[in-house]
């Protein structure tokens, strides 16, 4: 008797950013997961770091360091660029935010409690960003890398297009 050795498809979370959802719950859940991970790993989530993450979560789009700095200033935090950069460096180092290379900006990770390779869909009209999971080592890139004897450690997948809201507005 032959057993089917194929694994069931891995269920990936839906991309968050374009879909309609309860945004307050979304922000609260990601902040809670981040705080829990920081407590578990002994990481210090300072008020400035938490505020930067909160600002990025509230936007669901990528923000540059200077835009974040302006928002921090309005919220009563420091107004020197190192304040924003130090917070972003910490958050990125621990996977709480991701850098969107194409925009030279940052977006909050919506899965901070999971090890994953993110892929980003970026709306070229409104700059909103949706994050989803990718599996680069398993696709065509992974096959080419294995053939070359290369081990993929990190990838950045960024797709540019039009989000559902902008597509709907253009069709109207």
Structural write-up:
There is one protein chain. A hairpin with a 5-residue loop joins strand 3 (117-123) and strand 4 (129-134). The chain has six helices and five strands. Mean pLDDT is 83; it is low at 1-15. The protein is 42% helix and 15% strand. The chain is globular and about 50 Å long. The strands form two sheets. It has a three-stranded mixed sheet, with no helix packed on it. Strands 1-2 form a two-stranded antiparallel sheet. The protein has helices at 23-41, 47-59, 65-74, 81-93, 140-148, 164-171; strands at residues 97-100, 105-108, 117-123, 129-134, 157-161. The chain has one domain (23-171): Arc Repressor Mutant, subunit A.
Distance between the termini: 58 Å
Strand order of the largest sheet: 4-3-5
**DSSP summary: helix tally:** 6
SSE order, one letter for each helix or strand: HHHHEEEEHEH
CATH topology heading = Arc Repressor Mutant, subunit A
- Hey, roughly how much beta strand do the residues contain? 15-25%
CATH class assignment: Mainly Alpha
Described by strand count, sense and barrel closure, the largest sheet is: 3 strands, mixed
Counted up, domains total 1
Rg, please?
A: 18 Å
Q: Structural class, please? A: alpha+beta
Q: What number is the mean pLDDT?
A: 83
Q: Share of helix among residues? A: 40-55%
What is the general shape?
A: globular
For this structure, what is the CATH homologous superfamily?
A: Winged helix-like DNA-binding domain superfamily/Winged helix DNA-binding domain
Outline the low-pLDDT stretches.
1-15
CATH architecture: Orthogonal Bundle
The number of E-state strands comes to: 5
